[in-house]
Amino acid sequence: MLAVRESTQAEAVERLEGAMLQLPQADCPVVHHFGPGIYIREVTLPADTFAIGHEQRFEHLNIMVKGAVAIVGEGGDLKVLRAPLIYVGKPGRKVGYIIEETVWQNIYATTERDIDKLESMLLIKSRAFELHAAELKQLAIAARVDEREDFQKLLDETGFTAEQVRATSENTTDQIPMPEGVAPKITIRESMIEGKGVFLSSPCTSGELLAPARLRGYRTPVGRYTNHSHKPNAKFAKAETGDIYLVALHDIRGCCGGDSGEEVTIDYRQALSLSNITIGEAL
Questions:
Q1: CA distances (Å), origin 248, targets 24, 87, 195, 197, 206
Q2: To 5 degrees, how large is the angle CA 188–CA 125–CA 121?
Q3: Percentage of residues of the chain with pLDDT beyond 70
Q4: Cβ atoms 247, 237 nearer than 8 A
Q5: Residue 67 φ/ψ, nearest 5 degrees
Q6: How buried is residue 170: exposed, middle or buried, by Cβ count under 10 Å (0-12/13-18/19+)?
Q7: Partner residues linked to 235 by β-bridges
Q8: Residue pLDDT, tens place only, 138-181
Q9: Burial of residue 270, with CB atoms counted within 10 A of its CB: 0-12 exposed, 13-18 middle, 19 or more buried
Q10: What is the Cβ-side half-sphere exposure of residue 240, based on CA atoms within 13 angstroms?
């Protein structure tokens, strides 16, 4: 009898999730922290919203830094959690109403730092969510046609081929990892423009310095993966030291309703104008 009740509740949650995905989604900024053998995923949930989390595969530590949430437990029982609170969460999904703005941390023991891999390892995304994400992906790919066409125009202007640019991008001899503790808002995810791209999981304001792209002549992941756009939301700026940083040209949104956040783009022509470097060296 208990198994039937659990199954029925899970199905009801997924039906509710499917209906909610058709509604405007709330901003839910996410910040990613890494330490030796540890990953902390921190989300800020706005007050007066209803939230359904992805299914957690494993037990893990939960910390409520601030806020209050009314959680629906197994069997439909309701309880209010208030910060500060630390507890070990069981496998399964969290469903609740956010009473006060809440900062919630999920803490996992892992050495993995690729966000897409971490989500696959730690979370189970429902069929309703995956179908919705697939629909949005197709729309986003179609909406990015202009960027891809302008990139080809740029190649024609410089005389380089896409194969040459890709080979330079994939050359690891001048690349370094992102320095520890730098750019917790930045994630590298699948891009709807080309390959992988740089995404902002938590919002920024115009003029904000987002991350280093080149340090001491070496490319960071931002320097490798930031994609081109003829209408960019960021630019590369050179410091007096010669290092290059990614800077927002206007406000950029972070995660909204569980998506990856907004992709950060630059105009490669502007990046090339910083110095007398060729397109192959810049990308």
A1: 25, 37, 22, 15, 5
A2: 60
A3: 93
A4: yes
A5: 105, -175
A6: exposed
A7: 247
A8: 999 999 999 999 999 988 888 888 888 888 888 888 899 998 88
A9: middle
A10: 0
